[in-house]
Amino acid sequence: MPQQQIVPTWLAWNNCNFPTQSGIQDLRTGQDFPAGGLNQGDYFDATEREANGASYAVNGLLHSGRYRLVQVDSSATAANVKTGTVGYLRAGMIMQSVVITNAGTGATAGTYQIAATAGVGGGTGAIIQVVVGSGGTITSASVVAGGFGYVAPPTFSLTVTSTTAGAVAAQLNSSPNIVTSFDQAVLYSTVVRPVVFLNAITPGQYGFVQELGVATVLANASLTSATANAWVNTKSGGAGTVDTTVSTGNPIGTTIGQAIDLPIASLLFKCYLGITAFTVQD
Amino acid sequence: MPTDPLYNEIDASNLESVRRNVVFNNLFVGTPFQAKLRRAGVWDEFLGGAGMMEGILYGRTQGAAVNPGQTITVTRQQINTGIKFLPKAYATWYPLDDWEMDDGSGTGGVINSGPSKIVDEYQLYMENLVLTMNTMQEMDSFRHGQAASATVTDNRIKTINGLDEALNNGIDPSIYGNIYKTYGGQQRNGNIGIALNSTPIYCGTSAGAPGQIDFAVLMKLWQQCMITGGKPTLGITNVIGFSAIAIALDAQRRDISNTRHDIKWDGLNFNGVDIYADPLAPSAQAQNYIPLGAATGGGQGNASLVDGVGGSTTTIAFTTPQFVNAAGGNVAVSPTGSNLPSTTNIQAAEVLYFLEPESFKIRPTNKKGWNFGLRRAPMPNNVSIDALFMRLGINLYNVQPRHNAYAFGFSA
User: Fold this and answer.
1) What crossing angle do the helices spanning B215-227 and B239-249 adopt, rounded to 10°?
2) What is the per-residue pLDDT for B412?
3) Which domain, by its residues, includes B191?
4) In angstroms, rounded to a whole number, what is the distance separating the alpha carbons of residues B98 and B384?
5) Residue B11: closest CA among chain A residues belongs to which residue?
6) Into how many domains does chain B fold?
7) Residue contact A11–B300, C-beta within 8 A
8) How far is CA A80 from CA A50, A223, B241, in A?
């Protein structure tokens, strides 16, 4: 979805927990009612005044930044999706591509369609096509069916080709419009592209998250360095809360930005998301 | 989850009883201050130009009792100048999705159309744009339009130059704790003296707590307008303040009948001043009954009435400065006659204005596009959504603040 600076949000941005992406649900069928113009992935930039005015005070005050309508993955941990916790990209649901990691030797020339190994990756239905050349090596691999419901890449057995050491690796799709809780992201190794939750969103439902600008994050009960302008890092094992470390060194893999307020354990504080270049102007 | 069968017999056989085209207003309230000013004929369209300048006379020529044949050194000092205000821009807006609603052209509104339509959503939004605009105007009429400074704590440079800065004397804090050293760009208490001053009357205790409004305060308000040549005819106060006045004046009533009390205190006139109850006028208690300001926004964030900067007219507590006398010495009470004590935390509570409508000017532009005009801006890559802006270029100010006065610091 492109940037949408003209968009209905129906409720205060930090109080949305919609069962459907349009924010309107048909009362009878439960279907997404497409009206108003709100779509999953719509994102927009807001000034401080606009964000303040669109805040539900009970869930805190919003600030200038970039907000996006996302779906919280149905497997996210509900308790970790709340005001100030950090979420991450969900691993893609379908297999999007496959690469040859080892062409192998001794395979029988031909074209093979191979289904994903059952029980691996959490989904079903992924199928690839492998071509073995006259030299007995795998010359190409492509996706026949992406399948559905994967949380980790499926695997494929190439035994049918009689290859020695030949192997392929599947890759899932990626979307910033489905996010999950930190613990699930760790579980499936997708701790990339952090976002901040503005309010509790029921797993499987839709709401707004903040991905740039001045965000309010929830400090862990134990902080390494509670100083303003410290690096703000998602705390390992912290259920989406953050730790702060001195900003004299380089950011680490889970750094989401820098503290604006003085961080205080277990309390919310403001943080500038992104590392300078990715900020949004007020 | 859908039921199975999807519809029960009742729902499959009956529509709900609903009155078409009726939506009851449970948010907006009236805006009588603007209405009364318009009725008084203060509407003066802004035809264009680099601002709105009003000439004011503040000085006199020389004169004295003389002896015939006496020689006189004839000098001249400036006697007139001007005050200047800029037009202020307002807008209200919403995203118009023509898949959902039709703008009256009949080309859209796939959903909100036909015999199943209960309410015309486009009309509902259009009326809401106007009501939101009028609410902002009404509330801003009681505030100021100046930038923040050493004595003005809030930046309202985008809003109209309302009563709070007009009715000030550059010495006493207003009900929002601001001291307006200038008005219309002109410095108060400088070369023009007190020409643009209006002194507020504080009714509270010396400790800052709200007091009572009474007959004496009403007379003082009237007196302050009259002594400067004004003729106040319009009184504005919140409904809460109106009650306070009625309760105070009830002591004047001499009703010897104990069989049937016919009480009708919904209109007050004092010395020719018709006092109107304005629910959006400054008040400490009104917020208990109507949602004022962002803090009472509710879960949707927009379920409250806000002014042009997202605030409200709810009065606040503020601390007065250390007042000094002409010699520079500290004094316990303001030397202006406002009755404000020095360095005291004051609860502004309720407020009553005595106004001379003829001294006001409402200056909307005469350009249709900015006089509640619409601008529809399509989002170029969106199939159904446009931004719809209602716009207003306007200002409100007073050319003779001294003909007006207000009292505050009383409660009902």
Assistant:
1) 110
2) 81
3) 85-252+264-410
4) 5
5) A28
6) 1
7) yes
8) 27, 18, 49
